[in-house]
Amino acid sequence: MAKPPDPWSRGRITGGRCRTWSSRARAIYYAVIPLLGVAVGYWVALGFLASPAGRTSMFTPSRIASIVALSILISGILAAILSAREKAARRDASLAAERARVATAERAAALAQLQALEAQVEPHFLYNTLAHVASLIDREPATAKRMLDRLIVLLRASAAGGANGGSTLGEQAAHMRAY
């Protein structure tokens, strides 16, 4: 059996929809709701106490004015506190988003710098290795062949790692052995 929706969770009773309202509309809303609550609460409580004289004395213009003034004062203080907290939360969220953006940009810059460095180093390594193999072909052909075989393994590992932008630890170990 499906559970009926909780009116508190949707903000119908607490005014969850008013988060999109202007601060002036929210201030009026949060000042009027407590006033209505106090008036209804006094009316019901004095009715349960069977005190018609209490109802009459409680709802005089001077008592109503004092309740309204006190409610407006309390609502104003709460509004100031909550407004400051809301601004601080927005500022913290903005700061966190900016930090995340900067960290992402720094990671991208470091990766680009590493790729640029690899692009510079690999051609020099290749040229030096080929020059060394060429010098070994006449004197030590077996060593030259072994160097060429390892160079092929190294180039394959480099090409495989560069295609998808990442590699496993095993692939990195094979790359280092070939180097």
Q: Please provide the ordered H/E string of secondary-structure elements.
A: HHHHH
**Beta-strand content bin:** under 5%
On the 0 to 100 scale, the average pLDDT is 78
Radius of gyration: 38 Å
- What percentage of residues falls in helices of 4 or more residues? over 70%
Biggest sheet character: none
Summarize it.
This protein is mostly helical and about 180 residues long. About 80% of the residues lie in helices and about 0% in strands.
Labels describing this entry:
5 helices; mainly alpha; rod-shaped; single chain; 179 residues
Question: What does this 3D model show about the protein?
Answer:
It is rod-shaped and about 120 Å long. The two termini are 67 Å apart. The longest helix has 79 residues. Helix 3 runs antiparallel to helix 4 and helix 4 packs antiparallel against helix 5. The model has no long low-confidence stretch (mean pLDDT 78). With 179 residues, it is mainly alpha-helical.
Fold topology:
Layout: H1 23-48, H2 52-58, H3 61-139, H4 141-164, H5 169-178
